[in-house]
Amino acid sequence: MDQIKAVFNGKFDNLDNIRVSPLSRAYTFSDSIYEVIPFYKSEFIAFDEHINRLQKSALGINLQIDMKKISEEVHSLTLSSQLESGYVYYQVTRGQDIIRSHMYSDNIEVETFGYVVAHEFETKIIQVMLCKDSRWRRCDIKSTSLLGNVLNMNKARLENCDEVIMHNNDILTEAGASNLFFAKDKKVFTPSLDNNILPGITRSILITILRDQGIEVIEGCFNVFDLQKASSAWLTSSTKGIAPIKNIVNLEHSLDLEDSTFKKCKELFDDGFFNQK
Ligand code: PLP
Fold first, then answer.
1. Which of 238, 242, 276 has the most ligand 1 atoms within 8 A of CB, as the residue to mutate?
2. How far is the CA of 130 from the centre of ligand 1 (A)?
3. How confident is the model over 196-231, as pLDDT tens digits?
4. Which is the closest atom of ligand 1 to the Cα of 179?
């Protein structure tokens, strides 16, 4: 297998050669934020939106970051990889402690890490499980503190699921690594943004595309019973694109993969998402 191109603290190398201190706060506290930036046919998809969200996540955890340097590194990684389609994972960590301590020093130096891999943007039909959302209350920050997502998704994997749909006391939030949409009576519904949901870039692109084409998209507060009335449901993310849900294993309800509203949304999305400039 080809070596994975990576960059650590500004130094480009193969991923295998990178060594990180166990006192990196990414390791001890998940005191870090990240982005996954897709590119397709050698063009980034929504580059500025991803970079802006990284900046917002940094502000959310009181971290100063050099956006110009990060943007340049992300571009250099894709160029050096010579890949046509894939994504860059880029993480910014508060830095390395002298000794593990919740309270960080003011002089700590930010640690950056990125790598680039190939990715096929193909539609995958998925099975999901409904789970309680047990995450912290700032899921709008794209932090690497993802234990709630990890535990839920691995519980779902045991039931042959690819993803989860999470809820707080029956109020739908999002999936483990994607945002949730569902359709009913030719309208499209998605949980509105708040601290409990990551503002997905793909979510936002899809909403814009659909509204531009006259499809009604309602952002609001929805519960599990609303989902039980849906004709179709799907998840969105930068790497999944739109992933139609064939079944929710622990919910009595059937979803229609041939639903006309879903098919229209998917067609419009594929046209718009992969042809952005
Ligand atoms: N929600 C969560 C929890 C995620 O981890 C992700 C992506 O990783 C998304 C939503 C989708 O975000 P985006 O469309 O920006 O990839």
1. 238
2. 17
3. 999 999 999 999 999 999 999 999 999 999 999 999
4. 10
| Residue 177 CA to its chain's centroid (Å) | 5
* Cα-to-centroid distance, 222 and ligand 1 (Å): 19
Q: Which two tokens stand for residue 134?
A: 């047990």
Separation of CA 259 from chain center: 25
Q: In the numeric block, which tokens belong to residue 114?
A: 């990125």
Q: How far is the CA of 255 from the centre of ligand 1 (A)?
A: 23
Q: What is the mean pLDDT of the chain?
A: 97
What is residue 221's predicted lDDT score, i.e. its pLDDT? 98
Q: Scanning the structure block, which residue is given the tokens 């952005």?
A: 276
Query: Which residues carry out catalysis?
Result: 142
Hey, what are 198's tokens?
Answer: 């990551």
pLDDT tens-place string over residues 38-86: 999 999 999 999 999 999 999 999 999 999 999 999 999 999 999 999 9
Instruction: Name the β-bridge partners of 129.
Output: 164
pLDDT of residue 113: 98
Q: Find the 98 Cα to ligand 1 centroid distance in Å.
A: 33
- Ligand 1 site residues (CB inside 6 A) read 36, 149, 174, 177-179, 198, 200-203, 236-238
Token pair for residue 66?
A: 């050099």
State mean pLDDT over 115-138. 97
- The predicted model gives 249-258 an average pLDDT of 97
pLDDT value, residue 2: 78
DSSP 8-class letter at 15: G
Nearest residue CA, atom 4 of ligand 1?
A: 177
User: Cα–Cα distance between 86 and 110 in angstroms, integer?
Assistant: 26
- Protein residue closest via CA to atom 9 of ligand 1: 178
Strands 11-14 and 5-8: what pairing? antiparallel
pLDDT of residue 1: 62
